Amino acid sequence: MAHNNFTGLLKSGIGRLSNLQILQIHGNSFSGPLPGELGNLTSLMLLNLGQNQFSGTIPVEFSNISSLQSLLIGNNNLEGEIPDEIFELKQLTELYLMNNKFVGSILNSLSRLEQLSRLDLSGNRFNGSIPDSLRKLNKLISIDLSHNLLMGSISGSVIAGMKNTPIFLNFSNNFLTGSISNEFGELEMVESIDISNNNLSGGIPVTLQKCKNLRNLDVSGNQLSGSVPEEIFPPLDLLSSINFSRNQFDGEIPGTMANLTRLTSIDLSHNKFKGLIPESFGNISVLKHLDLSFNQLEGRVPDTGIFRNITAVGLQGNPSLCITNNTQLCASSSRSKRSLSRKAVLILSILGSLALLLVFILAVLCCRHVRKPKVKEPENPELPEHTAGFTLKRFDRKEVEDATDNFSEGNILGTTSLSTVYKGRLEDGRMIAVKILNINQFSAESDKSFNKEMNTLGKLRHRNLVKVLGYAWESGKLKALVLEYMENGDLDRIIHDSAIDRSRWDLSERVDVLVSVARGLMYLHSGYDFPIVHCDLKPSNILLDEKWDAHVSDFGTARILGVHQQDGGNISSASTFQGTIGYLAPEFAYMKKLTTKVDVFSFGIIMMEFITRKRPTGVLTEEEGIQITLPQLIDQALSNGLNELIEIVDPHLASNFSTKQGFIEQLLNLALCCTKMNPEDRPDMNEVLSSLTKIS
């Protein structure tokens, strides 16, 4: 019954199904209170009521289901305190209460759930401190207490008690204080630690070097200070993501950090790091994101590796950095800055005199200009208004015709009802893609929108967006975008073309593509002056360059048609923009309600499609031959276990499946979260990216 459109109350009569062992009705729109009669289902082992709109409290009758192993009631509107009776369910291995409105403290009674392996209480209003009783849960492999109102310190005894168990630990986004205890180093099995966005102080304990399985470490958004110990990093050779941003760290960036060859993301921004940037950062071949902005770094910026892609590195807010290959020039610049103070008085005096002289000259010129009669400039009917705001090159028709051999059919890369894309070559030899918009779909009124959006597109710069190089425009005749050319085509071809060599597309490569797309979307949603919603994200709009790095394309077409987020999140119903069936979020398809969560839904579908190689619509079940959606297929497979999961994934991922199963399950569960019916229940792209980087 999961992932349908069921609404209304859950009837009390369900309590008469006394032999029921599994009940999964998640992903619907049930509302009202949870019936206490569910407590009569004493044979239940799995109860999944998540992703609905249930309200009220947890019925104490649930404590009667003594055989219950999994209680999953996250993503509802439940409230109140957790009944103490729930902790009598001694067989519970999974307790998911996330994203509700639960209040009160996390009870010490939790320790009675001795079999508990996964605990998620995130996204509620729990207060008080982290209970000491957690140290007794020696089978926990995952604990998430993030996004609550927890206060106090993270007890060293609690952490020490978990030393052989937790693999994923998330205490982020609370009000925790105190220091990071040395006992964190005893978490020998831990793969991910997220204690970001609290009020923690002190430094990074050297004992963290003992967490040799650690892959993701996020301590951002605290009040941590001091230098980061060099000796921490050499043993942590599995680390792929480090986030120390928005703290008060000082001293030099540890060179040993730059020797970790598996790092894909490093964020040290908004601290007080000093000295030079380690040259060895440029030697990390898999590094795709490096943010060193807003520190006190100085000297020459390296020019190898990731530093060759300036959009992948954040350097702003370091006024003493020198971006040049000329070492002598950097040294000269540095000496000049140091000597500035000794000459300040003389320089300011000279500049003051020059300024007065300049004001006098300008006054004379202005007087002369006023006496001149104005000559009206000839109008150019072909040019839109306000072209002064454009930052893109304007190509004329002949240039794009020559580049594409007069729009030769042999150069067509793709076509839709809205546009046709041609491969082209400029006179200087550069390869480009020319996107010719279908004039019949773009009314004359869209000229103003086209002009405005060209101005916006010219300002968007991110390594995971296809770069817009320019445009061509003739009123009522031609609207075209000139884009950078992507050598390896689009993701749709990679997924579905049987001629593609799939040996290079293992799980890690697929996750890399998804991470790149997520970064591009996050920039569109939150990296510009206002949120930009793509509206038509799909595999054919994800392009791959010569290095197989992913870039989001076609993020301007919807806006040119006038589709953009307005007050209340609605768009004009007169828009000709329809999106693509299968990737459309329901609120956009049926109600024309537009928020950034529309793109999150599409991204979730793409995740599923990339893992399964199945189109998002018209999926047939083998047994009944009934058409279901891709999210429904995924949800069924995850519920039914290993054998069915192997059946639905891409056969090229099925080999050595046991080593990948956990990662694939995490990816597909994240995809299901992205495709929830209620947009408010979906994560934003920042949260999606955070989850993906932890999986990778």
Describe the structure.
This protein is α/β, with parallel strands linked by helices and 696 residues long. Among the domains are: 1-117, Leucine-rich repeat, LRR (right-handed beta-alpha superhelix); 387-485, Phosphorylase Kinase, domain 1, CATH 3.30.200; 489-696, Transferase(Phosphotransferase), domain 1 (Orthogonal Bundle), CATH 1.10.510.10. Helix content is 24%, strand content 19%. It has 15 helices and 37 strands. The strands form seven sheets. Strands 2-4-6-8-10-12-14-16-18-20-22-24-26 form a 13-stranded parallel β-sheet, with no helix packed on it. It has a six-stranded parallel β-sheet with strand order 1-3-5-7-9-11, with no helix packed on it. Strands 17-19-21-23-25-27 form a six-stranded parallel β-sheet. The longest helix is centred in the middle third of the chain and has 28 residues, at 344-371. It starts with 6 loop residues before the first strand and ends with a helix. InterPro entries: Kinase-like_dom_sf, Leu-rich_rpt, Leu-rich_rpt_typical-subtyp, LRR_dom_sf, Plant_LRR-RLKs, Prot_kinase_dom, Ser/Thr_kinase_AS. It is found in: Cell membrane. The chain crosses the membrane at residues 344-365.
